[in-house]
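The pair is set out directly below:
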Amino acid sequence: MNEFHFGPNDTANMKVIELVADKRVCWECVYADSEPEWIGTTITFELTESNGITKVDFSHAQWKEITSCYKYCNYYWAMFLLSLKQYCELGKGTPYQERTF
């Protein structure tokens, strides 16, 4: 079980449902105090490497319905993936607590 904190009242617990070292990790959300719509959704990171470049395919799936939560999560995941890219390329990303978006 992994526990993520995004502030004092924003915790999500993820169960690892698939793990292939250096290739793929898939989590299922089992608890989310501020975003209960996340419960039952899956978050997957898939890595592929070609010519020394690693590509990350990401999905947040199994939503029960399209709501405002779903819509803004798409935007925030894009910002967090950009932060991951900056961290990998420049050594510094944008931690949740320092974000301005």
Remarks:
- Helices lie at 68-90.
- The two ends are 28 Å apart (CA to CA).
